[in-house]
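Quick illustration for those who missed Monday's session on complexes.
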Amino acid sequence: MSEFNNIKGVLFDLNGIVTDSWRYHSQSWREVAESLGITWSAELEEAIKGRDRIDSLNEILKVGGQLNQFSDAEKEQLADKKNAIYQNMLDKMNPDDILPGIHNFLAELKQNHYQMIIDSASANAPKEIKKLDLEDYFPLIVDITKLKHNKPAPDVFLKAAEMIHLKPEECIGIDDGVVGVESINAAHVVSIGVGDPKVLHEADINFTSTKKLTLENIRQAWPK
Ligand code: BG6
Ligand code: MG
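Prediction with 6-O-phosphono-beta-D-glucopyranose bound:
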């Protein structure tokens, strides 16, 4: 494992780390799932957190026992329906939706010359960063639509490190989802899981809230 002092860049998941938009994704998928007669549950919600659009739909259909009932074109329509619901919610997004502690953390990172990039699984990430007024901090966003494999594969975090010209071991990745933490670990980036430590137990470092994200807290929590 790298030393804290070797870290030069921080790779940020968006939904659930920078902003609270995960609940909007979740609500939109719930509407689609229930329209198909599939019961929503906390387990299903956790299983799709951080997965891309089609992977999320497939997971929902699998849990509902309907995976083989739709053609690819019909699945596209269902994914479009979810995205239309999500877009309505996104239109109201503004800087008040930035999660607690994030502004201070970003300012601290910038002041200390760390590189920063967004590595979200969401094709809506550029729009969200604009709505949140965070373009100065995040001029760089990985284009998820160009990658072959999504989280939990390491591609998005490897691409993020490459885009800020750092080696994976010079970076920290922060995510709130199990598949996100798996993706960070597979990329050999130091992982910070934000959320329930029992759920995110594979992370190198756990914080229960984005409020805890400071350089000093990370340094203190660094695995020995
Ligand atoms: C991730 C969310 O950030 O983006 C997932 O955690 C979502 O829930 C995924 O499915 C894809 O988002 P979008 O906006 O491309 O449908
Ligand atoms: Mg997330």
